[in-house]
Amino acid sequence: MTNKIAISLLLLIAAVVVVDQIWFEGSLPLTAARALDGFIEYLSFWR
Question: What's the predicted TM-score (pTM) here?
């Protein structure tokens, strides 16, 4: 991954977080954390 791609991804993620805070009342991080928790539980079944 080049620096240009990394910076672009960082700016894209920051923009998504800012838009979430403004228009969707900041529920994205909590939703993503819950989805990640469910995914980890799903993967632990296969271990």
Answer: 0.61
